[in-house]
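Design job #97: recover the sequence.
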């Protein structure tokens, strides 16, 4: 039977069990590994694979199991894992400041990209770097977070997740196409301006993060997602390109352009990202995100290990490329948004890993 810890330290909302135990270990000056063994039990007799026991943690902290389950998703039997990100990430610095013992690692909802209360960018979890930043000079990102939350309230987290992932990819390809795509009238030029604020040129190497690159296009991506998630526009997008008997595809592309400040927008290139989405994704079911339990299986303390060496190496390679070229569009096109299945539609390319990407894409399609 675990002994009661002397300090009453409650968990933070959405905190992972590992984060909570590490804070408890720091405050009580005990070894984290010993505390983990104290409140867990082996899985199928394997001492290297253990699972947390809610009652043991309750006995150690003095908080009832139902109280802990409200804050710790891993202890709640009714947790909707598909509505949470697949990777823990640090909480907003101001939100975690009132929780002693160290940094708080949270499982954020799919739609949490900014802390509106304290005006911090959260973004998707990044590899190896802290991507958080105050948004006092970028209130448009906070407004986009509010709009994003309204979309989730209206259509649900999974449809909006699907729409936003594709909106990010469409925005990235349009960004790469350059000024000729905007005709000098749209709001897309804001992306370069925001990027210079988020990742200053004088400190590009150290300030680079994929999460901040997503922040540069986030407001317009949310606007596009509001179009892609609506069933009526998904249905109109499925009509053939250039069909003389209907103008539904024309209506769809015109609405797409209108939301970004372009009038009578109808790209004729069949490889345009809007047409690629309409032909290959509008008729399909929603993308299903990867869940946190899928990533944590097999780890010693119930949480997936840190980023692998290969992922860190790719991150630093992207930072070097960005420092020299300042081409965030390429960075986003080839970056896999956390929790999203592989999407080959917008950037099919040969290479040594092409066969592996095709296999992963086929597996993702079968799971849907």
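Job complete. Output follows.
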């Amino acid at each position: 039977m675990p002994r009661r810890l002397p300090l009453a330290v409650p968990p933070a909302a959405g905190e992972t069990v590992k984060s909570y135990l590490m804070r408890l270990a720091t405050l009580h000056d005990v070894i984290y590994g010993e505390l983990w063994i104290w409140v867990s039990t082996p899985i199928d007799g394997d001492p290297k694979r253990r699972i947390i026991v809610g009652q043991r943690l309750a006995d150690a902290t003095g908080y009832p199991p139902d109280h802990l389950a409200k804050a710790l998703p891993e202890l709640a039997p009714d947790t909707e894992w598909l509505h949470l990100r697949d990777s823990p990430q640090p909480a907003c610095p101001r939100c975690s400041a009132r929780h002693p013992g160290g940094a708080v690692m949270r499982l954020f909802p799919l739609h949490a990209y900014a802390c509106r209360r304290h005006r911090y960018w959260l973004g998707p979890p990044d590899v190896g770097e802290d991507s958080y930043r105050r948004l006092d000079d970028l209130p448009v990102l906070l407004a986009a977070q509010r709009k994003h939350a309204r979309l989730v309230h209206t259509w649900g987290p999974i449809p909006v997740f699907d729409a936003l992932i594709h909106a990010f990819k469409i925005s990235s390809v349009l960004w790469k196409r350059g000024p000729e795509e905007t005709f000098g009238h749209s709001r897309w030029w804001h992306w370069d301006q925001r990027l210079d604020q988020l990742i200053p040129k004088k400190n590009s190497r150290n300030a680079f993060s994929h999460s901040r690159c997503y922040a540069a296009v986030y407001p317009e991506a949310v606007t596009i997602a509001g179009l892609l998630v609506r069933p009526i526009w998904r249905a109109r997008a499925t009509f053939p390109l250039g069909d003389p008997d209907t103008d539904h595809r024309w209506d769809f592309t015109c609405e797409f352009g209108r939301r970004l400040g372009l009038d009578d927008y109808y790209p004729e290139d069949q490889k345009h990202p809007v047409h690629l989405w309409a032909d290959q994704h509008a008729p399909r079911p929603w993308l299903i995100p990867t869940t946190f339990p899928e990533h944590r299986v097999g780890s010693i303390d119930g949480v997936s290990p840190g980023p692998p060496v290969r992922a860190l190496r790719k991150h630093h390679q992207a930072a070097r490329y960005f420092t020299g070229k300042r081409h965030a569009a390429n960075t986003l096109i080839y970056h896999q948004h956390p929790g999203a299945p592989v999407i080959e539609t917008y950037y099919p390319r040969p290479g040594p890993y092409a066969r592996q990407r095709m296999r992963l894409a086929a597996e993702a399609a079968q799971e849907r």
